[in-house]
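Today's session is about reading a structure prediction critically. Students often jump straight to the picture, but the first step is always the sequence itself: look for stretches that repeat, for charged clusters, for runs of hydrophobic residues. Only then move on to the predicted structure, which in these notes is written as discrete structure tokens rather than atom positions. Here is the chain we will use throughout the hour.
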Amino acid sequence: VVIDRCEKCQGVWLDGGEIFHFSKDPARIHWALEQGLRQPHETKLSCPRCKKRLVEGGLLSDTLLVDHCSGCKGLWFDKMELQELGGLEMRGHKPARESKTAGPPREWPAP
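Below is the predicted structure for this chain, in token form.
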């Protein structure tokens, strides 16, 4: 996996599916992304891969705001947000719309 990091701001771009390589619980991340970001809103930023407009919203919590591309499924993490994702996974935060009866899918797309 090649990590695309901005030398200026220290943010990280992960192409579609690469997030699963950095997650302790890839099925949970997949589930959260399938459900959609929390309180999503369009940003002024364009995807570095496909040039579609990025959408910002919470991933696993309202406080971890990431930018997501609906076209190529890439994710932008500002400085330290990837580490914050690991912390949220450790604390057991659940995706926004997850119910007690619904679970994550058994399989997810290969990166």
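Discussion point for the tutorial: The helical segments are 26-35, 81-91.
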